[in-house]
Predict the structure.
Amino acid sequence: MTPLTPAAVEFIPADYFAGVTPGSIFPDSSRPLELDVGCGDGTFLLQMAGHYPERDFLGIERLSGRIRKICRRAVREGLTNVRVIHLESAYTLSWLLPAGCASRVHLLFPDPWPKKRHAFHRFVHPDNLAGIHRVLAPGASFLFKTDHADYFEEATAVVDQSPLFTRLPWLDATEFYPTTDFEQQWLDQGKLIQSARWQRQELVL
Ligand SMILES: C[S@@+](CC[C@H](N)C(=O)[O-])C[C@H]1O[C@@H](n2cnc3c(N)ncnc32)[C@H](O)[C@@H]1O
């Protein structure tokens, strides 16, 4: 495949209000697609893309500096299976991306909003669960990691109680799952990292 330019790594929808078609992000929509929600500087995203050339990876990030950095790094590393979208995650999952497009959604070290009065900003809440469920293909999985004990407890309670997901054990230790940029910072500070994984359930109406 022809190497990408930094501009081509950024996925810019033709119409932000119309929803995107499966083939408009990557040329072959039959390949597995994994989403990294709030991908930050993209170390996890880029390592996954390098390790799994047979899969495609889309990072969602709202900070433009981080988007530009990932685009440059993807080109430098010769990756053709990674794209980033500069957009708010809830909108991207709930409306923009095609339903059932993803084989995995990774939500890694989302902003913890540690103050009690700000906790309603946390990404894991029932509205966003519907968006995550919407983009996952049948049987696909949602993976979550945080260093924040209170957020972990709250998020796992919300997802465990939801009929949209059932809990799975965390990945086998031999499976490739690189450390993220924020994770490395917390590990260096000796913080405890907690992880959870769920499978998308079919809704019986
Ligand atoms: C704490 S950082 C974690 C980054 C990365 N996942 C990691 O583990 O290194 C959270 C990231 O999510 C992004 N973010 C937060 N809320 C977002 C939203 N609503 N939409 C898109 N990105 C968001 C932030 O800009 C930031 O880059």
